[in-house]
Amino acid sequence: MIWESKLYKVSRYIFLTAACIFVIIPIIPLVFMALKTGAEYSSTSVLTPPKNWLNTYNFKYAIKVGKLGKALLNTAILLTISLTLQIVFTSMVSYVLHRFDFKGKKIVMTLFTLTMFIPVVTTQTVVFQIIYRMRLVNKMASVILLYSGVGIVGIYIMLNLLSSISKELDESALIDGASYFRIFRSIIFPLLRPACTTMLILNGIGYYNDFFIPNLYLRKDVQTFTVALYKFFGNTATPFEIVAAAILLGIVPIGIAYLLLQRYIFYGLAGAIKS
Hints:
With 275 residues, this protein is mainly α. It has a domain at 76-219 and 260-272: MetI-like (MetI-like fold, Orthogonal Bundle). Helices cover 74% and strands 0% of the residues. It is built from 15 helices and no strands. It has helices spanning 2-24, 27-34, 38-43, 57-65, 68-99, 105-114, 124-133, 140-147, 152-162, 168-175, 180-191, 193-209, 212-217, 225-234, 240-272. α5 runs parallel beside α8 (140-147) and α5 (68-99) packs across α12. The chain is globular.
């Protein structure tokens, strides 16, 4: 059966290589277009490499005229605050649900689970009224508040990792006189790092790409990158080589973050699906 094992390995690598090619192919023309001048873009094919690989005019134009630099900064601020709060809240809720038994525990889990089946768009009429009455519309605090909520996917990721953390650690710390808050802060939370990183990337990518919430709740001078890019792209007078540079500006940050943290994602997801 050795030949079957080798055939499987060869087939696997062929499939993975093909998948990588299909992912990379659309990005290569985008890079070429972003580095071309207007005249070069009009006179050459999208697959023709640029003459000057150091041409940064399109990027500078997109950042200055499209205000994409400010939009990236706004997005970074929103994501940093929102994801920090969400990870802290989710880990605390998960710790309570895993370590303690109390009345209504099953009801709480059921309610969290039901949120998976409710489309976000269908609740925005009520949510907008609440945010409006709180006087948070057109303020970054509104998006931060909506992004900081605890989700059932994050809870399941945390719960599965908590299952591998022995309860004897809690009991030993209690005997030594530590409070539950001290146990969580000093012992449990550091051990939840893989799950926290998984949430950071998965939710971070979702929030980074989100258009609906920021466009609904923020004013024009406080735009996230997706909203600014949409309005910049919507301007028919904008040359496409500059639009390509703007799109590439949005891809690079999230791509770098994913490459740096991908090993934590795989580890965290493996824990999330572990029986």
